[in-house]
Write a structure and sequence with these properties.
By secondary structure, this protein is of the alpha+beta class. The chain contains three helices and six strands. This is Lipoprotein SmpA/OmlA domain-containing protein.
Length: about 140
C-alpha cells in the first residue's frame, strides 16, 4: 500500500526549499536595481523609513494559510498538515539603487526560513532574467 503522507511531506519541503533558494538568490542578484524598477516589479512598499543610511522600503507578505487533513486509519484519527508563514522584506535604497536586502520571516519549515519571502522578489528576478529591468 503506497504511503502518500511521506511523499506529500517531501513535496512540501521541496517547494519550501525552492522558495528559500529564490529569496537567497535575490539578495545577491537584485543589488544595484534602480528604485523605480523595484517599484515596478515588487509594487509600492508597505512602509518607508529614512535614516542616515538611506531609505528602507519594507514589503509585508502574509500568504493565506493552507492545510490538508489526511485520515490515518491505524490511529483512527487524522493527520493535519498546514503551511503558515509571514515575511518582511526590507530593501535598503541609497542614491536610488538597492544596496542591501534583508528578510525577517517566520516559517514552519525551519531550514527554509525565508521561503515566505520569495513572492516579493520572484517577479523582480523574472523581469531581470528577461531583460525588462536591469541593475546599474
Amino acid at each position: 500500500m503506497p504511503r502518500p503522507l511521506p511523499a506529500l511531506l517531501l513535496l512540501v519541503a521541496a517547494c519550501a526549499a525552492r522558495d528559500a533558494s529564490i529569496a537567497n538568490d535575490a539578495q545577491l542578484r537584485l543589488i544595484g536595481l534602480r528604485a523605480d524598477d523595484l517599484r515596478l516589479c515588487s509594487g509600492v512598499p508597505d512602509r518607508r523609513e529614512t535614516s542616515d543610511g538611506g531609505e528602507f522600503w519594507t514589503y509585508v507578505r502574509t500568504p493565506p494559510s493552507s492545510g490538508l487533513s489526511l485520515p490515518v486509519p491505524v490511529a483512527g484519527g487524522a493527520v493535519s498538515l498546514s503551511s503558515s508563514s509571514n515575511c518582511y522584506v526590507t530593501f535598503q535604497v541609497v542614491q536610488g539603487h538597492v544596496t542591501r536586502i534583508g528578510y525577517s520571516a517566520a516559517s514552519e519549515f525551519g531550514l527554509a526560513r525565508d521561503s515566505a519571502c520569495a513572492p516579493v522578489v520572484q517577479g523582480c528576478l523574472r523581469m531581470l532574467d528577461q531583460g525588462m529591468i536591469q541593475r546599474d
